[in-house]
Amino acid sequence: MPVPPAQSLVLTFEDARRVVEDHASRQAAGPAETVDLLHAAGRVLAEPIIADRDIPPFPRSTRDGYAVRSADLASLPARLKVIGEVKAGPLPDKVPPILNPGETVSIMTGAPAPRGTDAVVMVEYTSQHGDLVEISRRVAPGENIVPQGAEGKHGSLMVDRGARLDEADVALAASVGKSRLQVFVRPRIAVLTTGDEIAEIDATPGPVQIRNSNSYSLAVQIQQAGGEPVLLPIAPDEPRRLRHLIEEGLQSDLLLMTGGVSMGRYDLVEQVLGEMHAEFFFTGAKIQPGRPVVFGRCGAGTPAREALTRTSLPDRAHKYFFGLPGNPVSTMVTFELFARPMLEALAGKSPRPLRFLHARLKSDIRVKTGLTRFLPAILSGEYTNSHAELVPWQGSGDIAARARANCYIVIPPDREHILAGEWVAILPR
Ligand code: AMP
Ligand code: MG
């Protein structure tokens, strides 16, 4: 018979999330490695990206037109003498280093505005005849010119370590000449699925067997969150083998288990972890789906050979684990809500709060109070008119319903009846 852990600790969603964030914030980042810029997207930056010169390096015109001294346009139409042309690229010899009153140059987008000029008049408000241009519109000082260094001063921090690199960060790195970047080594995240009824996907399942889908959905989520999944064999509902596999999983940087955390007679995960003197921070959260979610940590034990390889994080005093409920949608939701922030911390990423979008509800929702719900839904509509609607589902085992959904509608625990047209929080997928 399973023995439940010392006490059952069921927290509200907010409290459970806070507990995870708390532990996550105390994780030291692991070792770094150097990658080519083309392979840096999605990785977590381990060095600051610093501007190696002013950005832009010269006052940059944002328009095609004429670079002027704005004071020359006091009375309109103004006639100025065109003494040359600057395009993006090297300054032509013909253009003097500084313009005098009454002079202008024609200028292209991205070209440096010559000294003495303080604005660019768009070509649309000009007409040039020979070397004279007539200008029909005034410009304020600074108009259509980005001052030198306005986007970043030489030596200033452009992207801080801990950022997950996206295309804009990569563009910034490129623009300061970083062709290689130091990024944190991806943490290894062990996945251990449990249950006598679970079959490997390449075996023919018996009539009441269920194919293992959780290891695969978790592998995807782990990769998307910046980790490297390590899939362990399926653990039977048998304490000795389960313990052996849990110990193996604890050699990775984080252990995610699925199944075996409900209150059933063969839900052995907590019992086995209890025997291993694990510390439990919660053994349930007031959420749906995903109520039986477990979070805790174990002493790290003796490192196995793989933990000593170059790519694993330094040995930590404790290894954290999550027991995620076995129902596939519960597994996906609880990964997103709880495992992800810990994984990201181990990956060296700076913490960020869970972000929600908001959309109008398409049709009424009735639920019981007491749980924060994350229900599969479809967000549709366009521009300012987006709305969300629940996907009909058979409960937290219904992977097909989740696959039809593109988000979760979040329902706070005190709401019973939410009316069509109300704004609801959306957790995007
Ligand atoms: P448990 O949390 O072990 O009580 O499992 C809850 C439900 O999830 C049961 O219907 C299991 O068959 C199902 N389940 C558990 N593990 C998996 C898995 N790896 N893939 C698909 N379904 C699973
Ligand atoms: Mg089970």
Any descriptors?
429 residues, alpha/beta, six-stranded mixed sheet, 30 strands, binds adenosine monophosphate, binds magnesium ion
Description:
- The chain is an alpha/beta fold and 429 residues long.
- 18% of the residues lie in helices and 30% in strands.
- The strands form nine sheets. Strands 8-5-7-6-10-9 form a six-stranded mixed sheet, with no helix packed on it. Strands 17-14-18-23-22-19 form a six-stranded mixed sheet, sandwiched between helices.
- The radius of gyration is 30 Å and the shape is elongated.
- Adenosine monophosphate binds at residues 193, 195, 197-198, 210, 212-215, 258-262, 264, 267, 325-328, 397.
Count of beta strands: 30
Strand content: 25-35%
Number of helices: 7
Overall radius of gyration: 30 Å
Proportion of helical residues: 10-25%
Secondary-structure map with pairings?
Blueprint: E1 10-11, H1 13-25, E2 32-36, E3 49-50, E4 60-61, E5 65-68, E6 78-86, E7 103-107, E8 119-122, E9 126-129, E10 132-135, E11 145-146, E12 157-159, H2 167-175, E13 180-184, E14 188-193, E15 198-199, E16 210-211, H3 214-225, E17 228-231, H4 239-249, E18 254-258, H5 269-275, E19 279-282, E20 284-285, E21 287-288, E22 294-299, E23 318-324, H6 328-346, E24 357-361, E25 365-366, E26 372-382, E27 385-390, H7 399-404, E28 407-411, E29 417-418, E30 423-428
Parallel strand pairs: 1-20, 6-7, 14-17, 14-18, 15-16, 18-23, 21-26, 24-27
Antiparallel strand pairs: 2-13, 3-12, 4-11, 5-7, 5-8, 6-10, 9-10, 19-22, 22-23, 24-30, 25-29, 26-27, 26-28, 28-30
Bound molecules: adenosine monophosphate and magnesium ion (MG).
Magnesium ion binds at residues 194-195, 259-260, 326.
